[in-house]
Amino acid sequence: MNRDAIRLDRVVRTFGTGDTAVTALHELSLAFAAGTFTAVMGPSGSGKSTLLQCAAGLDRPTSGSVLLGGTELTGLTENRLTRLRRDRIGFVFQAFNLLPTLTAEQNVALPLRLAGRRPSRAAVHDALARVGLTDRARHRPSELSGGQQQRVAIARALITRPDVLFGDEPTGALDSATSRDVLRMLRGMADDEGQTIVMVTHDPVAAAHADRVVFLADGRLDGALDAPSAEAVAARMTRMAATPC
Ligand SMILES: Nc1ncnc2c1ncn2[C@@H]1O[C@H](COP(=O)(O)OP(=O)(O)OP(=O)(O)O)[C@@H](O)[C@H]1O
Prior knowledge:
By secondary structure, this protein is α/β, with parallel strands linked by helices. It has one domain: P-loop containing nucleotide triphosphate hydrolases (Rossmann fold), CATH 3.40.50.300. It is 36% helix and 27% strand. The model has no long low-confidence stretch (mean pLDDT 93).
């Protein structure tokens, strides 16, 4: 069974109005199957972050539809959208955005506390175990390496057991060896736990960890590669860069 975790249908996102209006997504239709790891690539300004933000309910499309599981996001009130984001979506960014005065386990527990729920020790332990950091639970961010800090951020995104984990350049601030460790961990989450992952990246080596790479150009889908190799992705990106708009 290959159910869609997220489905975008003819999504348009226009910023501004009149002469200065910019359309970042042009009737984009795209589905992400449950349990798969997808990389989103494309030149700067092609709409990757806008796609992620619309798919994750952080931004509202100008028109079109976004379905998370069976839920249509575009018609939700702000309150319901906030709740859905909190309960069903995980997001990690290039910057780890950890609170420096809190320990790893306190950072991980924060989304549940902010939601007014009392995090169980087991849930926090489980989230840290999923990223291989149970032995660092009492450390503060300044006592952790960059890769460990991003693992804490991923554990924090996973504490609610989200339907989809989104990453906007999650390994962009890491050196290549650390980046590879984090990507292998994400790969394992898709393989072993059926976690759906959607990740924007500029790095062909990072994209090669995904099941599928989708390419955007000028706010439109510009093809996809299944079971991508870093070489094939790099060649594709080079061709895209050489194609005049
Ligand atoms: N808040 C905004 N206001 C106006 N224009 C915006 C806004 N956000 C994005 N854009 C425009 O929309 C287009 C797509 O931007 P987006 O950030 O989605 O691209 P991207 O592919 O993620 O780029 P990069 O790889 O450089 O991060 C760009 O032309 C950008 O300038």
